[in-house]
Amino acid sequence: MEKNLTSLSDFIDQEIGVKGTKKRAKFDEGFEAFKLGVLIQQARQERGLTQEQVADLSGTNKSYISKLEKDLKDVRFSTLQRIITEGLGGHLEISIKF
User: Which CDD domains is this protein grouped with (predicted)?
Assistant: First the structure.
């Protein structure tokens, strides 16, 4: 029995479009927001903190942390930095790639 396996990269190219297309750019942007939420959730869980504890430490509220973890599209940089540094005790690093 032969299985036709496709890499995730090839699958996305086929289903969404190749890099450089508008549809792919929108997909990639959404993926970055999703990834940010997952990273915050993982960091919070690794530190044994609840969403409410992170919210209290960072001066926001539990529902905002929940939305951020579930793919909140628009987050102010200053709020994100406060959540990372004060809420999670981490350091935010940013890079630009071409």
Answer: HTH_XRE
Dig out the tokens for 39 from the structure. Answer: 């990273």
Q: Give the Cα separation of 8 and 79 in Å (integer).
A: 33
Domain-located, residue 34 = yes
Which tokens hold the place of 24? 């792919």
Q: pLDDT, tens digit, for every residue of 84-95?
A: 999 999 999 988
Tokens standing for residue 28? 């990639």
The model scores a pTM over 0.85: no
Q: Taking the CB of residue 36, how many other CB atoms lie within 10 A of it? A: 16
The count of domains in the chain is 1
Asked if residue 54 is part of any domain, the answer here is: yes
DSSP code string of 27-75 = HHHHHHHHHHHHHHHHHHHHTT--HHHHHHHHTS-HHHHHHHHTT-S--
Report the distance separating Cα 36 and Cα 39, nearest Å.
Answer: 5
